[in-house]
Structures are given as C-alpha cells and as structure tokens.
Amino acid sequence: MKIIALVGLSGSGKTRLVTRLIPEFRNRGLKVAVIKRCSQDFLIDVEGKDSWHYREAGAAAVALTSPRDMAVLRKAAAPDPRLVARNYLSRADVVLVEGGKGVRGLKKIEVVRQGVGLDILTPAEELLAVVTDGPVATDRPVFSPEDAAALADFLLASLEEEMADIQLEVDGREVAMNPFVRKIVENTVLGMLKSLSDVPGDPATIRLTIARREEKHEKP
C-alpha cells in the first residue's frame, strides 16, 4: 500500500487534485482510497437519529449499513492516517491523504497556487513533488494541476520501487508477475498472517511453499 499526503494551504487546490488523481489510478488498475483530514471536528451523526442514541447510550462504536454503503462511527483522538489506512483501507493499493502536513514521516506532495502562496513548507525529506500553477523554488519534480496523468505515472514509478520482491515458481519454472499481481499477492498473504497470533506485525521476509497433492482417481 502506498500512502501519499497532498498538503497545502486552504484554497490551493488539494481537493481538485485528489479528484483528478483517483480516475488516473483506477485507469491503471489500482484501487484507490482517500482519507480527508479535518482541522476541526466534523459531524455526520445527527442528533436524534438512532445511531446518535446508540452512541449516547455508551456504545463504543456504531456501524451503519445500507444496500450500497457502510460507515462505522467511533471515537478517536486524531489517529495517524497510516494507522487508519492499514486498519480500515488495507485493500487499497493507493491511499491519498488530503491534509496531514503535520504528520512526520509521511511522504507528501505539496500543492501551491498563485494568489494563495508559492512558498514550499514541506520538509525536504518528506517532499516527493510539487503541484503548482506558478514558479517555485524546489529541486523536486514539478507538475501542473492539469497534468494529473504525469503525476500519477510519477507516483506509480515510486510505488514500483517500494514494492516487495516476490518470486513465483510453478513446478520449478519462474513465472513473471506484473506490479499489480505482485501487490495483490503481497496484500493477500499479509492479510492472512494478521489472523495468526505468533506472527510479527510487520515481517521482513515471508516464505510460503504450497506442495499440492496429486489427485488420484480410482478406475471403475
């Protein structure tokens, strides 16, 4: 899973860029999730509704389901977006975080805009690229707000560099896997390991061998 924050001042165009990147990644076969970080409290649990009554009665969490959607309401103290992504969005290949400039260690794309501010505020070690409609002083790659396709290609190349090294052999013959299949295999195996209590939470190396038994059919 690749987690990338899009940061910038209010009005710089973060939301518009996120909505442009989503279809670009989907067109490349990737599952995309988004985390919206809010500077103030938000309210989606309306007072007087059943879910509100359940939480007022002391429920630790309330799940809302419909034929099309699901939502889970629970108290949380400004959780790290990486924790949210791993716990709730583990099936996504790419998680775009709108906001999160204060989250240390999170890779970021800074969005700056003429009339709002062109100063780069992200620390150099966290900055992947800059999206802007004006001149900026940076040694990082610079993209136009309209060029979401090129930005998606840049991020996908970065994703490829960070993918796990997975080798697949079938009956002694190595089988090539494209990046998307490798990511599916990695996520599937890691998901299964989460159910095992004696496996470390973030293993460095996993070796799995499946020796299938040949089916024997009795002659009539």
Using the coordinates above, name the CATH class of the largest domain: Alpha Beta
| Secondary-structure arrangement, i.e. CATH architecture of the largest domain | 3-Layer(aba) Sandwich
Query: Rg to the nearest angstrom?
Result: 22 Å
Q: Averaging pLDDT over every residue, what do you get?
A: 84
- The helix fraction, in percent, is 25-40%
| Total count of helical runs of at least 4 residues | 5
Question: Which descriptor suits the 3D outline?
Answer: globular
Features:
alpha/beta; Rossmann fold; six-stranded parallel sheet; two-stranded antiparallel sheet; 5 helices; 20% strand; globular
Task: Characterise this structure.
This protein is an alpha/beta fold. It has two domains: 2-44 and 83-162, P-loop containing nucleotide triphosphate hydrolases (Rossmann fold); 164-220, no CATH class. 27% of the residues lie in helices and 20% in strands. A hairpin with a 2-residue loop joins β9 (168-170) and β10. α1 (14-27) crosses α4 (148-162). The radius of gyration is 22 Å and the shape is globular. It starts with a strand and ends in a 27-residue tail after the last helix. The mean pLDDT is 84.
